[in-house]
Amino acid sequence: MSTFEARFKRIMDAATLNEPDRVPIVPVNQTFPVLNAGYTMAEVLYDFDKGADAYIKYALQYEPDSVWGHAYIHMGMGPMFDLIRPKTLTWAGAPNNRLDKNSIHQYIEFPVLEDNEIDMFRSDSTGWLLNIGLPKIAGLLEPLGNMGLSAIAPAYNSVPMLAASFSAPDVRKMIEDLWAIEDINQKLTEKLNSLDTKLEEIGFPIFMKGFALVPFDNYSDFYRGTVDGMADMYENEDIIINYNATNLEQTLFSIDVQSQFLPGKFVFMPLHKGMDRFMSGEQYQKFYWKDLQTIIERIIKRGMIPYIYTEGPYTSRLEFLKDVTPGKVIFHFEECDMIKAKKVLGETACISGGFPVSMLQYASKQEVIDECKRLIDGCAYGGGYIFETSNGMDLVKPENIEAMFETVKTYGKK
C-alpha cells in the first residue's frame, strides 16, 4: 500500500466510524504554512506560486494525513480584490493597509439590508439586490445603483433603454473589470487544481472540495449582519422563514451540481450562527437545524461526505446533531466538550477538532502532549475520530507543533 493509499484509508476509516491503524491527524491550516516557509500573507495574496510552495513544504515537513485550508486563505486573489474593491472584506497587502502583512483576511460586517429597506426586500428582493444590495458591498458594483434595471419591462422597446444603461462610461468600465476578474479567477482555479494534484502525487489526499452554507448563515452574514439577524428572529420572523425556504432550494440545487464533479469528496459547511447561546433551542430548531439537517442528508444522498465545521461553543447542540444518517458525516468542533461529543455522537458520526490551537503558541510542550493524549483517550476508542486543531493555525512554537504531530502519530496507534 502506498503512502497516499494508507493516508486515504486512514481518514476514510475514521470518517465511516471504523477504527484506523492510528488516529488520523489533519490540523486546520491557516497562515502557518506560509509563515513557516518564510513568506508573508501579503506576498501570498498577490503570488499564488509562493503559497503553493509553502503548502508543499508544510506537507513534506510535517506529513499530515491530509492538507486542507489552502483553498480558504485567498492565495493569489489580491489582484482580483483590487478590482472588486470589496466593502465587506480586507486583506493583507490591500491598498488601505488595514491589516498586518501576516494576517488572515478579515470580514467587515454591517447590515447590507437595512431596516428601512425591509418592505422593498419583501416585495421585490431582486430589485433591492440590483439597485441597493450589490452596490453596497463592492466599489466595482456601484454603477448598478444608477442603472434602474428593475424598472425595465420585458419588451422589445426596452432594449434601447438597456443599451443606454450598459453604455454609460462607469458601466462599461465595470463590465471590463468583471471580464478581467473572470480571467484571473479561471487562472487561479487552474493553479489550485494543479496544487491539489501535486499534493496528491506526493502522497497527501485532498478531500475538501465542496461548499455549502445554512440559509440562516447566508441571511445573517450577507444581508442583515449578526446583531440585526438576531433581532429579526423576534421582529421579522416571516422574512427569515421566506428567505430560508428560497435559499434552501438554491443550496440543494448547488449540491446536486457539485455532486456531478465531486463524488466521494467532503462538502465543507462552516456553521457561523448556530452556536450555543446565540439562539435558543427552539429557535435553533426553527431557523437553523431543520435546514442544516436537510442539506446534510442531500449531500449524503448525492454520494458526498458532509464535513460540518461548527464555530463557537456547540455542546448544547449535540442532541440535534445525532439525528443524521449514521456513518456518513464528520462534525468538527471548535469549542465543545469533546468527551461528551464522543458519548453522544460516537455511534452516529465521526468527530474532529477540539484541540485548542492557542496551545501551540502559548502552552508548554508537555501541556501540548498531555492534551493530545487526553483527546485521544477520550475520543479515539472504537474509531470515528480525526485529530484536528480547533481552528486555523497561525503563529506556533516549533517545539509545540512537532510535539503535537509526534504524539498523535505514536500515542494514537491502534
Highlighted features:
alpha/beta; TIM Barrel; single chain; two-stranded antiparallel sheet; 414 residues; six-stranded parallel β-sheet
Please explain how this structure is put together.
The chain has 414 residues and is an alpha/beta fold. The chain has one domain: TIM Barrel (Alpha-Beta Barrel), CATH 3.20.20. The protein is built from 17 helices and 8 strands. The strands form 2 sheets. The protein has a 6-stranded parallel sheet, with helices on both faces. Strand 4, helix 12 (281-301) and strand 5 form a beta-alpha-beta unit. The longest helix is centred in the middle third of the chain and has 33 residues, at 169-201. It is globular, with a radius of gyration of 23 Å. The mean pLDDT is 96.
